[in-house]
Design goal:
Layout (H helix, E strand, L loop, with lengths): L6 H5 L2 H4 L6 H16 L5 E2 L14 E3 L5 E4 L9 E3 L17 H8 L2 E3 L6
Antiparallel strand pairs: 1-5, 2-3, 2-5, 3-4
């Protein structure tokens, strides 16, 4: 299986390098989303601006722009929020260790891709 495009991959694309300085990060997110859609049209993808939570019928896990895995919390006080599966304080920013609503997950860590068919 072809690996998903990461943000690091996207920063090397000409269209991202040509973006204005203030828009490079967002352009990398959009470019990674577009590349994921092009290479893996059979999988579900969400851009950083896709703000509609897929809900309980959506994926149980998604992969973010760096291929970190996030799991939807199905029970407990944070039910419906998302948590990074392999969070490591020294390797990830503090926010990644907190349960996040879909909107923040997509905006800060997108693009997102359904992890169901990904082998880890």
């Amino acid at each position: 299986m072809t690996q998903l495009t990461t943000l690091a991959d996207a920063y090397g694309l000409d269209r991202v390098r040509a973006a204005p300085a203030g828009g490079v990060d967002f352009m990398a997110q959009i470019a990674a989303f577009e590349e994921r859609q092009r290479v893996h049209p059979e999988r579900a993808h969400w851009s950083p601006v896709d703000q509609t939570d897929p809900g309980d019928d959506g994926p149980a896990e998604v992969l973010d722009g760096d291929l970190d895995r996030w799991r939807r919390l199905r029970t407990g006080p944070n039910q419906g929020l998302w948590r990074m599966v392999d969070f490591h304080p020294g390797r990830h920013e503090a926010r990644a260790g907190e349960p996040l609503p879909w909107q923040q997950l997509a905006f800060h860590y997108g693009p997102l891709t359904d992890a169901a068919s990904e082998r880890k």
